[in-house]
């Protein structure tokens, strides 16, 4: 298989990608006959057909021929181990250990790259309708868990706030006062996230034509700065207590109730942390709650400075989403391949730009079409592509621009002269 199409997909922002002409049936038959001459290749092709359910129009670049089935990966691993053993025997006992470990480390890289390549091929060759159906099914399946994570965290934080207020008032301990302040702000921050999520779902299209998806990121940033503020207040109170400690005499009376309350709070946060762990990469809201539970565990176990660093990194990550950071390479590859295979009328792609607009994505695509085409045909193809891109998971909006050549300068300037 020629790797030109695959290399083009790796750099999704590259310009002037040309769609290949659809191969005639005779060329497909010749490829099938050539594959049938080799039993291994025939088995690989059959395995690809079983796993990918390919259609001829969805695989114009022949990406399926680069798919490595499990048998090929096993053979590759066996050949690598055989090479390692031969290297160890040739260098003897003195240098064999170093060369063997070096070879083992290098052998993992090709295997990981093949697995990554297989995942990319499966993702790109899967029809868009199937991707949309899987995303909807996953969302509906995870909706009960999402509600439990959000409302369970909010309800538990309310209960823990009441318990820790009692423990702090009854003992007067600074450490319990700081955990009480942390619990109060936890509840306030949870309420902020819930209100931001509800505001995001109630959209007036005339006032907010692009939606309110960025409110989720704004709520996450507010939550992060809430928790950073709590951590800094705790540090300030602790420093003041350490300075004034030599002036105090005697010790406080030991009570078992506050210790039990702190242990219950720690165990509850651990359970919520484990529950939110599986949903953290699917919902931005749950990811922030997961970070909150992790921070609370670290505060109780390893110190407050760790919590400050974690929340600062979380806030920076949310800020980059608002600043329109580029999407992941896998997402750019998928959108580029969808554009290339959308219609035979599309002659090529000038540019593909995919970036975050809050938690979701905006795609700007410049496709190339024949200038002799009628306006109705050009419009219908571009509009169908826009609808297809906006149906993808995590896509907020898609803008499709039609060109008739690729030699012009970029349409958008990065610097604005005011």
UniProtKB/TrEMBL annotation:
<dbReference type="InterPro" id="IPR050291">
    <property type="entry name" value="CDF_Transporter"/>
</dbReference>
<feature type="domain" description="Cation efflux protein transmembrane">
    <location>
        <begin position="153"/>
        <end position="314"/>
    </location>
</feature>
<dbReference type="GO" id="GO:0016020">
    <property type="term" value="C:membrane"/>
</dbReference>
<feature type="transmembrane region" description="Helical">
    <location>
        <begin position="175"/>
        <end position="196"/>
    </location>
</feature>
<dbReference type="GO" id="GO:0008324">
    <property type="term" value="F:monoatomic cation transmembrane transporter activity"/>
</dbReference>
<dbReference type="InterPro" id="IPR058533">
    <property type="entry name" value="Cation_efflux_TM"/>
</dbReference>
<dbReference type="InterPro" id="IPR027469">
    <property type="entry name" value="Cation_efflux_TMD_sf"/>
</dbReference>
<protein>
    <submittedName>
        <fullName>Metal tolerance protein 3</fullName>
    </submittedName>
</protein>
<keyword id="KW-0813">Transport</keyword>
<keyword id="KW-1133">Transmembrane helix</keyword>
<dbReference type="GO" id="GO:0098771">
    <property type="term" value="P:inorganic ion homeostasis"/>
</dbReference>
<dbReference type="GO" id="GO:0030003">
    <property type="term" value="P:intracellular monoatomic cation homeostasis"/>
</dbReference>
<dbReference type="Pfam" id="PF01545">
    <property type="entry name" value="Cation_efflux"/>
</dbReference>
<feature type="region of interest" description="Disordered">
    <location>
        <begin position="1"/>
        <end position="41"/>
    </location>
</feature>
<keyword id="KW-0812">Transmembrane</keyword>
<feature type="transmembrane region" description="Helical">
    <location>
        <begin position="297"/>
        <end position="317"/>
    </location>
</feature>
<feature type="transmembrane region" description="Helical">
    <location>
        <begin position="259"/>
        <end position="276"/>
    </location>
</feature>
<feature type="transmembrane region" description="Helical">
    <location>
        <begin position="148"/>
        <end position="169"/>
    </location>
</feature>
<dbReference type="InterPro" id="IPR036837">
    <property type="entry name" value="Cation_efflux_CTD_sf"/>
</dbReference>
<keyword id="KW-0472">Membrane</keyword>
<feature type="transmembrane region" description="Helical">
    <location>
        <begin position="217"/>
        <end position="239"/>
    </location>
</feature>
């Amino acid at each position: 298989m020629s790797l030109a199409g695959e290399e083009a997909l790796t750099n999704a922002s590259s310009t002037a990608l040309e769609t290949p002409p659809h191969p005639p049936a005779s060329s497909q038959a010749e490829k099938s006959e050539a594959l049938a001459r080799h039993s291994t290749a025939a088995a690989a092709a059959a395995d690809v057909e079983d796993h990918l359910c390919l259609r001829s129009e969805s695989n114009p670049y022949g990406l399926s021929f680069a798919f490595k089935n499990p048998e090929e990966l096993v053979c590759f691993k066996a050949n690598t181990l055989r090479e390692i053993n031969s290297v160890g025997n040739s260098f003897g006992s003195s240098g064999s250990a170093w060369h063997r470990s070096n070879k083992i480390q290098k052998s993992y890289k090709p295997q990981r790259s093949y697995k990554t390549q297989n995942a990319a091929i499966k993702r790109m060759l899967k029809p868009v309708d199937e991707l949309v159906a899987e995303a909807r099914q996953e969302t509906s399946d995870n909706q009960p868990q999402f509600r439990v994570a959000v409302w369970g965290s909010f309800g538990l934080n309310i209960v823990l706030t009441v318990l820790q207020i009692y423990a702090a008032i009854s003992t007067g301990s600074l450490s319990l006062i700081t955990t009480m302040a942390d619990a109060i702000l936890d509840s306030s921050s949870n309420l902020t996230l819930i209100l931001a999520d509800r505001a995001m779902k109630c959209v007036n299209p005339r006032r907010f034509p692009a939606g309110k998806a960025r409110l989720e990121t704004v709520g996450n940033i507010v939550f992060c700065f809430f928790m950073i503020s709590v951590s800094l207040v705790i540090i300030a109170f602790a420093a003041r207590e350490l300075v004034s400690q030599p002036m105090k005499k005697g010790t406080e009376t030991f009570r078992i109730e506050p210790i039990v309350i702190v242990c219950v709070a720690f165990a509850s946060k651990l359970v919520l942390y484990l529950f939110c762990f599986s949903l953290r990469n699917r919902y931005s809201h749950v990811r922030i709650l997961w970070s909150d539970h992790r921070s609370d565990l670290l505060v109780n176990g390893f110190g407050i400075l760790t919590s400050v660093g974690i929340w600062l990194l979380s806030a920076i990550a949310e800020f980059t989403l608002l600043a329109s950071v580029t999407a992941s390479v896998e997402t750019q590859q998928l959108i580029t391949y969808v554009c290339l295979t959308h219609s035979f009328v599309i002659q090529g792609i000038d540019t593909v730009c995919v970036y975050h607009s809050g938690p979701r994505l905006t795609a700007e695509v410049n496709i190339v079409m024949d200038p002799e085409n009628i306006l109705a045909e050009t419009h219908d193809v571009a509009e169908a592509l826009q609808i297809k891109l906006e149906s993808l998971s995590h896509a907020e909006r898609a803008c499709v621009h039609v060109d008739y050549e690729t030699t012009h300068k970029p349409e958008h300037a990065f610097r604005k002269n005011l």
